Amino acid sequence: MSQKTWGGRFKEKTDEALERFNASLRFDRRLYSQDIEGSKAHCRMLAKQGILTKTEASKILRALDEIRKEMDRGVFDETFEDIHTLVEKSLVDRIGPVGEKLHTARSRNDQVALDVRLYVRDAIGRVDGLLRDMQGTLVGLAGKNSGVILPGYTHLQRAQPVLLSHHLLAYYEMLKRDRQRLADTLKRVNVLPLGSAALAGSTFDLDRKMVARELGFDAISENSMDAVSDRDFVLDFLFASSVLMMHLSRLSEELVIWATKEFDFVFLPDAFCTGSSIMPQKKNPDLMELVRAKTGRVYGNLTALLTAMKGLPLAYNKDMQEDKEPLFDSVETVEQSLVVMTRLLGAIAFNRKRMREAVDQGYLTATDLADYLVGKGVTFRQAHEIVGKMVLYALDRKKELIDLTLKDMKGFCGAIEKDVYAWLDPLSCIDRRNLPGGTGSASVKRALSKARKEIGAK
Ligand code: ARG
User: Fold this and answer.
1) CA distance 404 to 327
2) Whole-number pLDDT of residue 1
3) Closest Cα partner for 400 from 391, 408, 409?
């Protein structure tokens, strides 16, 4: 049997190096179940339209199921060009010429577009589930650590006291947007390209809507030339993956910093760290470092496909075969990264004492002191200036604002009263921020129960 589906007009044997270079089975075998699922729907439609007989169709359908079982076991004949050719040839192998009828009214161009759409749709479902798991873990962690305070940073300089739960829920929000981006991507993914054939559509009387229904697509493509050459939906997915990885990378970076002796905010369990082959004392945060670096790899996949697509005239071009490895690699990387990060988050513990000590040093309540002065009738700009001077004064004496005597303070502004000390307590600073979206305990409690509701957690 010829290993090709297109030998007829060729006189010469394909050059061996080209054969290897051109072949995609090595990676597109991952599409086997989508390819078979799509073929079955196409076959049922051909039968309904009278293009295949019922007997022919049931023979084909039965054989496709057998082929799938074999492929489920990892059996693939690697000598074929791509997964579409392999499935078709295996079909003909099993049932003879009837199998050759399956490709009626279809091209590999619309077939591969279909397979990739089904694959991306499945991937979105899995990634969304993993994002939800991670959100659940973050919400659990935020609930477990309610009342823990730490410095919030800007420029990685201590800025203002915040609740740890508030800090953790910031990542919850990022993941929420990641899920929204995927859901939005899905709308454009879930469109049936089959029926576009090579590029111009088909001469057969196809029922495209039936195929769309059978495969769970929301719509059918509107233009055959666009349908076979559109990879925007893959780019959408790669972009959503890139942003998602960027979020995981930021969290990773934060944990790397927090795990240093200098910060010492977080305890990383041994099970999630590795050691050094020379320095016996070392315990390294490799997991987070890998997530950080793999983010670059996922960006690279987006850039690779954007670049592959940018010079392509309509319609299908073989360049588009290069969509698969970046896609598969990103799906795998994103899934693995989400799994390890979620497991890690489920196992870490925070050093509340160190966090609290950090809050008490570095003038984190200075903004609140300025707000206090505004409450006493001083304009904000004046208040800012006064508190700036007070910070400088305290710095010189190696004191915190709360350590200054009332007499000292009054020297800067007569409006300051004894109530300033209670005002400068970090917890009171936090709890004055109970506006929606703020770090106040009541706000965070509301945010937490909203988050639990959103992800259907208890
Ligand atoms: N392996 C090909 C791809 O991934 C399948 C489509 C081939 N079409 C063609 N006209 N050669 O794009």
Assistant:
1) 60
2) 46
3) 391
Half-sphere exposure of 301 (CA within 13 A, CB side): 27
Q: Tell me the C-alpha distance between 320 and 309, whole Å.
A: 7
Q: Is 155 one of the annotated active-site residues of the chain?
A: yes
The rounded Å distance from CA 52 to ligand 1 centre is 25
Pocket of ligand 1 contains residue 185 by CB under 6 Å: no
Q: Are 326 and 301 in contact (CB under 8 A)?
A: yes
pLDDT of 271-301, one tens digit each? 999 999 999 999 999 999 999 999 999 999 9
Helix/strand/coil for 220: strand
Question: Which pLDDT band, with edges at 50, 70 and 90, does 138 fall under?
Answer: very high
**Each residue's pLDDT tens digit, 235-274:** 999 999 999 999 999 999 999 999 999 999 999 999 999 9
The answer to whether 233 and 185 are in contact (CB under 8 A) is yes
Q: Which amino acid is at 433?
A: R
Whether the model pTM is above 0.90: yes
149 SS3 class: strand
Q: How far apart are CA 189 and CA 160, in angstroms?
A: 44
Q: 349: which DSSP letter? A: E
Q: Which two tokens stand for residue 47?
A: 């039968």
**Cβ atoms 161, 151 nearer than 8 A:** yes
Axis-axis angle for helices 108-144, 164-189 (nearest 10):
160
Please state at what angle helix 286-309 crosses helix 324-345, rounded to 10 degrees.
Answer: 160
What is the torsion angle, in degrees rounded to the nearest 10, for the CA atoms of residue 156, residue 245, residue 230 and residue 64? 180
Helix (H) or strand (E) holding 157: strand 157-163
H-helix segments, 197-231: 208-214, 224-229
For a mutational test of ligand 1's pocket, the pick from 109, 116, 305, 328, i.e. the residue with the most ligand atoms closer than 8 A to its C-beta, is: 109
Q: Which residue has the tokens 């320095």?
A: 279
